[in-house]
Design a protein that fits this description.
two-stranded antiparallel ribbon; binds manganese (II) ion; 45% helix; 12% strand; 8-stranded parallel β-barrel; 10 strands; binds beta-L-rhamnopyranose; alpha/beta; 14 helices
Length: 388
């Protein structure tokens, strides 16, 4: 049996970052369904994120997406976040929604467009300086649709050159996190399609560059926990973008499609001793709530990560190691499954009560009247969504 007080301490230290864009209207290429009460401004997104933190005690930071969350004064915005009890976290750079980027951003064949894309990324570092953010998270839509369209290796050279310039601009305490995704919107080649390509760029850049594993960005059946274990061993796992997928980049609630996979991933993090903030792994959500209410969906997501982590912490590590060493295949498997099959909801409810929180954050939210208040207050203006 794992020591329960150690498990509780570790859970208290778990910090999950919320994405500002999860509070805005999102959808598919077929339809974006607007929801009442959705934020019109970055401040209102921060207000909603602060609710999630107030109810869970586990989501103290909110990631911004630039230019969706562009404001005139980022220092002031960071101050506003602090007043609401949260902080501005990772800065996500968006170089995929401009007409100029039709053939790519940092790997575009046109040097002028590459300059524009690189300048956008450098601006994001300026924003990080103003907000006190540690991480710049980069995901590129760059790639090609047709064989012969562009030079595959040449695009890697252009990408490397841009990343180098951005990396040089980082402060000593700042990091560059490079995300990968196997396809979409490019369908023939994607310039950063997998963890190997991301890792090669990070290794070339230096120690403050690390890979982001977005759990929705792999081919079906990919063993994500293996990738996590390998990156942790290399000291190059920068963090996660959590969400779940049934088919492609579905961006559904983390732990909804495959809670066992989430447990297996968190188990590798725990086994590597990388759960606490000191290890520098950013546990971020990257989700879209197209049809469900957004704040309860974020609450559920935080709770799903907490539950998977609690189960991962409950694994009896000495018993597992002994069974592995003895070659006891089924015994080792049983140790893992015993932890996974534990109902950790009472443990987490108790932990919340110890912190003075409601044991049931979703019920507390519904009782709070916050949803009714934002529906009544947020009338007029333009609701936030992709592109704003
Ligand atoms: C991308 C990627 C990025 C996210 C955007 C919205 O697919 O996952 O992390 O910022 O979507
Ligand atoms: Mn992502």
């Amino acid at each position: 049996m794992a020591d329960l007080s150690v498990v509780k301490q570790a859970l208290l230290g778990l910090e999950i970052e919320l994405p500002s864009w999860s509070f805005g209207n999102t959808g598919t290429r077929f339809k974006v369904f607007a929801q009442p009460g959705v934020p019109r401004t970055v401040r209102e997104k921060i207000d909603d994120a602060a609710q999630v933190h107030a109810l869970t005690g586990s989501a103290p930071s909110v990631a911004l997406h630039i230019p969706w969350d562009a404001v005139a004064d980022y220092g002031e915005l960071a101050g506003y976040a602090r007043e609401q009890g949260v902080r501005v976290g990772t800065i996500n750079a968006n170089v995929f929604q401009d007409d100029d980027f039709r053939l790519g951003s940092v790997a575009n064949p046109d040097p002028g467009i590459r300059r524009k894309a690189t300048d956008r990324l450098l601006e994001c570092v300026d924003i990080m300086d103003a907000t006190g953010s540690r991480d710049l998270k980069l995901w590129f839509a760059d790639g090609t649709n047709y064989p012969g369209q562009d030079d595959i290796a040449g695009r890697q050279d252009r990408l490397a050159e841009c990343l180098h310039e951005v990396y040089q601009r980082l402060g000593e305490d700042q990091r560059l996190l490079l995300e990968y995704k196997l396809f979409e919107p490019s369908f023939y080649t994607t310039d950063v399609p997998d963890w190997g390509t991301s890792l090669l760029h990070c290794l070339a850049l230096g120690p403050r560059a690390a890979v982001v594993v977005d759990t929705g960005h792999h081919a079906p059946g990919t063993n994500i926990e293996f990738i996590v274990a390998v990156l942790l061993r290399a000291g190059r796992l920068g963090g996660f973008d959590f969400n779940s997928r049934f088919y492609a980049d579905d961006d559904l609630i983390v732990g909804a499609a495959d809670p066992f996979q989430l447990f297996r991933i968190m188990r590798e993090v725990v086994a590597a001793g990388a759960l606490g903030p000191a290890a520098g792994i950013a546990f971020m959500l990257d989700q879209c709530h197209n049809i469900e209410p957004k704040i309860p969906a974020q609450l559920r997501s935080v709770m799903n990560v907490q539950e998977a982590t609690a189960k991962a912490l409950l694994v009896d590590a000495p018993a597992l190691a002994a069974a592995q060493q003895a070659g006891d295949v089924l015994g080792a498997h049983a140790v893992l499954m015993d932890a996974y099959d534990t109902d950790v909801r009472p443990l987490l409810a108790g932990l919340r009560a110890d912190q003075g929180l409601d044991p049931d954050p979703v019920a507390a939210y519904h009782r709070s009247g916050y949803q009714q208040k934002i529906i009544a207050d947020r009338v007029g203006g333009t609701q936030a969504g992709w592109g704003s």
